[in-house]
Amino acid sequence: MNTGSDEPGEVVVAADKARTDRQKAGQTGHGAGDGLGSRAPEFIKARRLLHLSWQVGVFVVGLAVVVAGIVMLPLPGPGWVVIFGGMAIWATEFVWAQLVLRWTKRKVTEAAQRALDPRVRRRNITLTVIGLVIVAGLAGIYVSKFGLVMPWKINDQ
Question: Any idea of the CA torsion for 36, 40, 46, 52, to the nearest 10 degrees?
């Protein structure tokens, strides 16, 4: 991980300083400054049993959406979009899902930036053209050897 410094203890010191600054400002909790944590309404978070049932409900709804996305992977439908939608539902309540979504967004952004690199685009276009030439060559060999036979009989009708 690139922290912008070669000093080994600087990251820990900066993290401790940020935590101290948040505590001085009156912010507490797991993700007070970084947007992590539960997004449940305050009256729900104030009551332990209500908050626990809220979390169970969010988990069950998110699980149903993720399972529907997994089912859509081999079947017609936007499987990955639905899976990430379920993760977004989980991210409203669970820090681990928020971290997974952040990591995924970062990786997708990096992949998009790599795809826009001119050298990578030239390589992808070259590989696509080579693949199409190979497929066209194989199709030509097949047609020259077996001929072009339609799977239905037009003359019989």
Answer: -90
Closest alpha carbon to 39 in 23, 56, 54: 54
Chain centroid to CA 113: 16
Specify the DSSP class assigned to residue 151: S
Give CA torsion, residues 125, 127, 131, 134, to 10 deg.
110
Looking at the whole model, is its pTM more than 0.70?
no
Contacts of 121 (CB under 8 A, 6+ apart): 115
Question: Could you read off the pLDDT tens digit of each residue along the chain, which spans 157 residues?
Answer: 444 444 444 444 444 444 445 445 444 444 444 677 777 777 777 778 888 888 899 899 999 999 999 999 998 888 889 999 999 999 888 888 889 989 988 998 998 888 888 888 899 899 999 999 999 999 999 999 888 876 666 665 5
Residue 8: count other Cβ atoms within 10 Å of its Cβ.
Answer: 8
d(CA 65, CA 90): 10
- Do 66 and 87 meet the contact criterion of CB atoms below 8 Å apart? yes
